[in-house]
Design goal:
heterodimer, A: 295 residues, four-stranded antiparallel sheet, 11 helices, 34% helix, B: mainly alpha, 6 strands
Amino acid sequence: MELNITNLTKEFSGMQAVNHLNITMGSGVYGLLGVNGAGKTTLMRMLCTLLRPTSGEITCDGKEIFAMDGEYRKLLGYLPQDFGFYPEFTVEDYLHYIATIKGLRPIVAQKRVKEMIGAVGLKKAAHKKMKKLSGGMKRRAGIAQAMLNDPKILILDEPTAGLDPNERIRFRNLISELAEERLVLLSTHIVSDVEYIANEILLMRDGELVHRGTAEELISSMQQQVWKCYINKNEVGHLLKKYKISNMKSDAQGVEVRIISEEKPIPNAIFEEANLEDVFLYYFGEKAGEENDMV
Amino acid sequence: MYFYIILEKRRVKKMIWFEMKKIFLKRVNQVVLLVLLAIVLVGSFLTIRDVKCYREDGTMISGLSAARQLRKEKNKWQGRLTEEVIQQAVAENQAVNASAESEELMLAGRQNLEDIRELVNMGFSKIGEYDYYVCDQIAVDQAESLYEKRLSNLKEEIIGTGQQEKVAFSKKEKDFLIQQYENLKTPLYYEYMEGWKALLDSQYLPTLMIITIVIIGFLISGIFSDEFQLKADSIFFSTKLGRNRAVGAKIKAGFLAITAVYWSVMLLFSVIVLGVLGFGGAGCMIQTGGNWYSMYNITYFQDWLLSMCGGYVANLFILMLAMLISAKTRSTVVAITIPFALSCAPMFLGRVSMLTELMNLFPDMLLRISKFLDVFLVCEIGGKVFGLYFVLIPVYLLLSLMLTPVLYYGYRKSEVK
């Protein structure tokens, strides 16, 4: 299974949401990282045939996906960012309905619905109405519907958004379990989500692919180094203006800061190993500060 | 191959089942359905209550007991209304008038021949100049010319008198109308028909049809737009059948909901009214009741069929259009306004004289067939003249069918932005 994206562009009223993108993906887990508005969701919607590209093409094993129509969507499992459902349906009804429109045979659908309800831990809630589920349970129902047809291509758009830390960890583990022998594309701006489970990370900014590689490759691609230092509170403003700061921790005496810089920012700064959050800040620095929920 | 077809059919049936569940599990839809049921029951009660008659002592009764008494009394005249029978009725009417001690006793005494009395009144009044007392005043001998009088009145209305020829109709339309009037087989057959008259000649049926279409509008307006409003569109359109069979299942579910609710309401209303007031009179020509000058030579049962089928076609067209608007605008609210606008607005706009003829072509006319059967509404197509309803019904049925592929292809191409 290979997805090939060639010169893919999507314009919305003159604004390029995705700009001449070229990516090839095979089996494995791909983490799509970028700030809000980077074009992640637009790219995923095109991959799910929900949006037609302005130019360029997406092929699946050499065949254009829009021409493949239902044959392509048969391979697809999708969990959108805004996961919508039918509030009056029970979990079981909802999954049966999705199984039907996914084209599963009734006997297979019966079996898969049962399996997926068990796999995502919704056995006790199977007869509950969707509208009565908690946020985490809804997300689990979402992943269950995406997996019903045992998809070869699984696309998850911000799957952990809005989940509490426990739910997020459970969800990450679930995705890791499901990721075998398929292409999983996971979009997020929560760095830790992809750090643990993605084989390869794609960094997107302004509709373009900025960088791709494993977490280690991305870390080593940084042209700057990471420094930790302890400073007075009145020095923070000055440092914020001069450097990209990936973390700050205050106590009564002062502030411990984590700085990304080519050179030692202050004499008592200590060299630190970089992590993926530092990479995120390095590449998306200006905008990263606007993101409240960046982990 | 055979196995595949069976499997596909089962799959589509299941999709339709789920679409129906989406419609009928919505709380707001359950509430409007209950409201509709209440309206049918209240409407039936009011329709039945409108049948009134006098007891021998002059007191008035209504509803089931009135229907029972009227059936017994009116069936005294059951049979062909020949010249002799009409003369006999006129004579009896005048005898009752002369002998009754009070107005109530007079009305009670002649209520058995009230329908025939009404025919004579209409027959011997000029069109548009109805006189309630004609039957009380004409000579009994004169009454034998009732059917000729009908024809001469109509000819005068349509063609005009020698000096003043009417220009409202073309030559072909005049010929058509006269032909229709001459085709009415006389003498008319008569029997008790209060049930059919109450059902078809009152305002309740058209009102109920308008309410039904508005309420079905609530049910079906969300079939397409709810996918977007619930944000379920992304998953729906990314599934294998989400851009083909699942869209077809939505259209079929809409069609089924329209059909099931419309016919349930109409049959329930008809069965309650006729069940209480009686099915008798189904074979009487509508001219025998209140439609003396109708160009449609049909029985009350055929009138019922025509009204019901016309109403159904109007429902289909207006509600298919509402579904199309729902799919295009992605707004349930906008879609809900369509049935309301198309079933009510033309009624008011039709009062503007320059719009009257145009408004006669709107689908709401099909919701009021039984009220317009005695209006000279004709249509000339390709040199041939038809009664308006025999044109509107097939045209709107065809338009409804034509909306289906527009809806299907429009919705399946939807993008999720």
